[in-house]
Amino acid sequence: xxxxxxxxxxxxxxxxxxxxxxxxxxxxxxxxxxxxxxxxxxxxxxxxxxxxxxxxxxxxxxxxxxxxxxxxxxxxxxxxxxxxxx
Length: 86
Hints:
Blueprint: H1 2-11, H2 22-37, H3 43-52, H4 59-68, H5 76-81
Helix pairs in contact: 1-2, 2-4
C-alpha cells in the first residue's frame, strides 16, 4: 500500500512543468525519488527532496529538472537549483 501511495503522490510531483514536463520528470526521476526520498507526502516535498539530493540524481533526472526550470510556472527553488537548459 505504501508503494502505491508513493507512486500516486509522485505522479502529481512536477509543479514546475504542468503539462509539458510532467511525464518526462515522472519517467526520468521516479527511481531517484524512490532511492533518495522514501515516502513523500506531497509534490512540494518530493520536489524539495530532489533538489536537496541534486548531487545524487541520475543524469536523465537532472536533465528533466533543468528543462522544467525553464517554465514560467517553475517554482523559485527549482530555478535556483537547476539552470534552465532546453
